[in-house]
From TrEMBL:
Species this chain originates from: Streptomyces antibioticus
GO MF annotation terms: DNA binding; sigma factor activity
Source organism, top-level taxon: Bacteria
Protein name as catalogued: RNA polymerase sigma factor SigF
Record InterPro entries: RNA_pol_sigma-70_dom (IPR014284), RNA_pol_sigma-B/F/G (IPR014322), RNA_pol_sigma70 (IPR000943), RNA_pol_sigma70_r2 (IPR007627), RNA_pol_sigma70_r3 (IPR007624), RNA_pol_sigma70_r4 (IPR007630), RNA_pol_sigma_r2 (IPR013325), RNA_pol_sigma_r3/r4-like (IPR013324)
């Protein structure tokens, strides 16, 4: 009886694990729960900080604008909230300034100009219109930066209409290049924008006026001289400019007949015989008049005196 009683007691534990799977599953569930947190950090790190930071900035901006609306302009509290709005939205200025990195202008200057646009946007923004502040401020910031490049950075000042037309020419050039698979001609760009070819050429020339090239700067490539060494030549006639001006000043001091004799002799290259026939006087008289004219010119010449 004791032997028969023992087996039932040994079989009972064998049935217990089958009837109670929960305790057995509990230990296996622990690694599963440990894996779930491992997947959550892997899915969230990239977008979460960016979205969280942007959402925090937008929420803070809304709160500050609501507070700013209740304050009197010019008060210390108003200035404090306004300064907090500027500081909170500086990343927006840096984002806009990054679009102009190719202009070879110090980014600190571009950010400073963009901050002026941000301040103007803050002063004009009305939160009751239902527009997000970044949407309202971005055109103002970018416009201020573009105005800075147009008015201050260009070596040659370009009229505003020509500058705006230059932007359209660039856009049309890109569109036509994509459509044709090649660089469009001036006539094609002019037809696209319904302007003349001269205006297109003027716009292209205006687009090159951001910076002046030094005449002494070396050109691209080895062994190429600077522009100064390749432009123009020494004109020997320049040496006679001062003398011609002096002669013109001296000639007007002579009598009219002597002026005419000198012009016929040295500008028309006539001989004394030809001059005498032209004026109806003897050749000897022409010679005497020439000698007297030379004497007067030498005495009136300040350089020889």
């Amino acid at each position: 009886m004791s032997a028969s009683t023992a087996p039932p007691q040994e079989e009972a534990p064998a049935q217990a694990p089958g009837q109670a799977p929960a305790p057995t599953a509990a230990p296996t569930a622990v690694p599963t729960t440990a894996q779930t947190p491992a997947q959550t950090p892997g899915q969230a790190p990239a977008p979460a900080p960016e979205r969280r930071r942007g959402a925090d900035t937008r929420a803070l901006t809304q709160v500050l604008f609501a507070e700013l609306k209740e304050l009197q302009p010019g008060t210390p509290e108003h200035n404090r909230v306004r300064g907090a709005l500027i500081e909170a939205n500086l990343p927006l200025v840096r984002y806009a300034a990054a679009r102009f990195r190719s202009r070879n202008e110090p980014m600190e200057d571009v950010v400073q100009v963009g901050t002026i646009g941000l301040i103007n946007a803050i002063d004009r923004f009305d939160p009751d219109r239902g527009v997000q502040f970044p949407t309202f401020a971005m055109p103002t910031v970018v416009g201020e930066i573009k105005r800075y490049f147009r008015d201050n950075v260009r070596t040659v000042h370009v009229p505003r209409r020509l500058h705006e037309l230059w932007v359209q020419v660039n856009s049309a050039t890109e569109d036509l290049t994509t459509a044709f698979g090649r660089t469009p001609t001036t006539a094609e760009i002019a037809e696209r924008l319904r302007i003349t070819e001269d205006e297109v050429l003027s716009c292209i020339e205006a687009g090159r006026s951001y910076h002046a090239t030094s005449l002494e700067a070396a050109q691209e490539g080895d062994g190429l001289p600077g522009l100064l060494d390749r432009l123009g030549y020494e004109d020997p006639a320049l040496d006679g400019v001062e003398h011609r001006d002096l002669v013109r000043h001296l000639l007007v001091q002579l009598p009219e007949r002597e002026q005419r004799i000198l012009l016929l002799r040295y500008y028309s290259n006539l001989t004394q015989s030809q001059i005498s026939a032209e004026l109806g006087v003897s050749q000897m008289h022409v010679s005497r008049l020439l000698a007297r004219s030379f004497q007067r010119l030498r005495s009136a010449n300040r350089i020889e005196a």
